[in-house]
Each structure stands twice: as structure tokens, then as C-alpha cells.
Amino acid sequence: MTALTQNIRLRIAPSPTGDPHVGLAYVTLFNYVFCKQNNGKLVLRIEDTDRERSKPSSEANIMSSLKWLGLNWDEGPDVGGPYGPYRQSERQAIYQQHVQQLLDAGKAYRCFCSSARLDTVRTEQRAKGLTTGYDRHCRELPAASAPASAPFVVRMKVPLEGRTDFVDTLRGVISIDNHQVDDQVLLKADGFPTYHLANVVDDHLMEISHVIRAEEWISSTPKHVLLYAAFGWKAPVFLHMPLLRNPDKSKISKRKNPVSLTYYQRKGILPAAMLNFLALMGWSYSETQEIFTVAEMQEKFILEKIHLGSPIFDLQKLLWLNQHYLQLVGEDEFVTTLRQQVFSDSYLRKLYPLLRTRMDCWESFVEKADFFFTGALQYQGLAICPTSMPQADFSKGMESLLLVLDEVYEWNSATLEAVLNQHRESLQWKPKDYFMPLRLIVTGRKDSPPLTETLEVLGREMVRFRIRDYLKNF
């Protein structure tokens, strides 16, 4: 494809609120290839305005996972650049300044409605069979009648009539009636911006030319287009990638498959295989060739040729590709990689206090430590579910444990002990009905080292994977 003449600038904007998702790598890959193909710049922007859920550890994992894949950015954290800072939490003054511009121009207004009033409005709307949304109670409130010192949010004045149109590169013109667009909140009561405001302001100030993101943002794009118009700015080119799907066509999620990049890195998937796999999710090199490098993709990639179908995240296909790339690994790389990633000094040191008293010779290490190095376990012949409860009730309890562990980021024995005890008490299960079954699920054996120390060494990804894998089979 011929390089474009305009200044090409794209961005990836993850929220550091969880694990680095394979969907992030999927979207980043297409942003990266288009940038490289057109001598553009790729910006990494951390959208961390959700103060309750944003975590420094999550941000660090996101960046390390992208670096592992070789999807490096040109501007952003760890790199810098002329349009920083690149964390939204550090750009508060910029957002507040732009909100004030909208207030002064009559394009936005202060809303003093309490949460209780908003709940009442939504309840009444549901009772009448109406679409829920803000009733614009404060839209024309005179400044003189505004409550003194009352907390407020700032909302955008969405036009009450007409339509908002935008062009999606893959789908053509998308149009929506303005009456279907809520008077969105731009600035929250704590002074932090919503995603919509920060997204538009940052994309404009960072001179983003193309926005390539997941199709789940299509419904938000009219709000963004209206904001561009309110500021008098030109909107970027929009392209929304089809979502990755499970084999049953549902949206890929950690409830059904591992979605964390750190899991696949730990599993031993090679970066080249993962990138090749993700490229196939949205694009074809040719009708006959499925194996290709990112460099080869750059040579033939055409933005408009991205597939609009529902890409299936097929783990067997990923493993097939990975096997191909493993066969290309040389002897020296084979030995070095196994030593560094599987039998590293740091990992063996973690196993030392857990296994040294359980071994009677070096040969017994393999028998005693096998579950520390494998992925899925075999549960045949293990009586995991307590005899005192139905399988459905036990599975439900383990599902609730997964939800708890998904939010545990300080993954150490002391934290895990407190979390497990609290969760067991919430279930009102006896210790023997909780801890031994969990031990069997995560180790496949009764005689493993102390539970929480074992969980710490196995790691967050492997523990959650094994619980999910057990639930899939029982």
C-alpha cells in the first residue's frame, strides 16, 4: 500500500484496571503495522482516571506484555514525547480547562442531581417502558438558582434534534438520531474527567490522525463526534475492529478462556506465534499462506481489507502456529530459553523452601514438582467436590472465588491466606470442604506444600487458569 501523505499518528489507550488483555495486543498490532507502514508515530496513553480500579501493577504488566510482543510505542510512558504527560491522571488541569471552554460557550452545563434522584428517574422510566437516561433536569437551570456549594457534574448539551453521522472505514456511514444520545457526563463530581471527554481532548491535543479500536466503542463514537463539533475540531479517521470471539461466538472473556497476555507468556507461546495468530484474526496475508511475520504483514497490509467477520480465538490454532515457530528455534536458543523461562534461577529459588524437605534424592524433584511446571491438570480419580454438598453448589463457590482472585494483585502468601479465609467464611463452608478441594484443583494432589505458599509460587495466572479449567470440566 502506498504511504499516506498526511502526518500519521495513532494511539493505544489501555486502562490499567486489570490484566493485559489479548484484545489489547490484537488492536495494538493493527495500529502498529499501519504506523510502521506509513512512517507514523504510535502513542501509548494510559487512561487511568478510574481512581478506584486503576493500579500501577496493571500498568506495568500492560507495558511489559506489549514489549514482550515487540509492539513498542514511539511516545508515552518510559519514552516521553512532545505531547505528554501520557497518563490521564496527570492531565487534570487540561481537562478542566476544556470543560470550562464548553461551559462558557453554552455547550455544557452543571448538573446538581443527586444519585438518589437519578435512580428514581431511571426506575420511573423503566416502569413506563422508556429508554433509561438523564431527563435533562438541570439543562436550562439558571445560574442564580444553582444550589450553593452543592456537588455537581458537568454534562454536555447534546442537540435535541437532528442526527449525528460519522464514517467508519470498514462500515461506511453510521448515523444515529440525537435524541438517542444522552447528555453525557464530561466531568465527574470529583473533578476527574469521564472517558469520553479525556479521550477526545487527548486525541485532539496529541494530533491523532486515525483511531483504530474495538467495535464495542461504535456506540460511543457519536458522543465523541458531537464533542469534536462542540470544540470546533476535526475528528480523526475512525475504524472499529471486530471483537475477538469464543467458539460459541460470544465475546471472548476470562470466564471461558484465558485472556491475559501474561498467561500466554508464562505458557510458553512465542511472540512471533501470538502476533501471527492475532493478525489472522482480522486480516489475511493470502488465500494460501497463514504463516507470516509482522514485517511481511507490513508489506501487504491494507487498512480497508480488515475482515468484518467474527474472529474466533481458537486456542488449538494458536498452539499449531506456536509449534511451527518452535520448530524454527535453534539449539542454543532452545537451551537458553528453557533455562531462562522455565527453569530460571529465580523460580527454582522459590521452590527451594517448599520442596527441600520433601525430597529424598535429586531424582524425586520431578515427581514432587511437576505441577509447578505444567499447565492444565488431570483430575480423573480425584474426589474434589466435598461429599457434603452438591457439585453445583461447590462449583458456584469456586466461581465466586475466581471473582475474588481476579481482583487480588498483591499475590503473596499472607494476602492470599487472608483472602481465602474471608471468602470461606462468606460461604460458610467448613475448612475441610474448602482448603483440600482447592489444593486438589490447583496442584492435582493431596501431598503438596502449604497451600498459600504454593499459590504464591504458581502465580496469579496459573492459579486462576486451573480453577477455570476445573470448572469447565465439572
What does this structure look like?
This protein is mainly alpha-helical and 474 residues long. It has three domains: 9-74 and 244-326, 3-Layer(aba) Sandwich (Rossmann fold), CATH 3.40.50; 91-241, Rossmann fold; 374-473, Arc Repressor Mutant, subunit A. Helices cover 45% and strands 9% of the residues. It is built from 18 helices and nine strands. The strands form four sheets. It has a three-stranded antiparallel β-sheet. α1 (22-37) crosses α8 (271-282), α1 (22-37) packs across α9 (294-300) and α8 (271-282) packs across α10 (315-327). The chain is globular. The relative contact order is 0.09. The model has no long low-confidence stretch (mean pLDDT 94).
Which CATH architecture of the largest domain would you pick?
3-Layer(aba) Sandwich
**By helix and strand content, what is the structural category?**
mainly alpha
The level 1 CATH classification of the largest domain is: Alpha Beta
Shape: globular
**Approximate strand percentage:** 5-15%
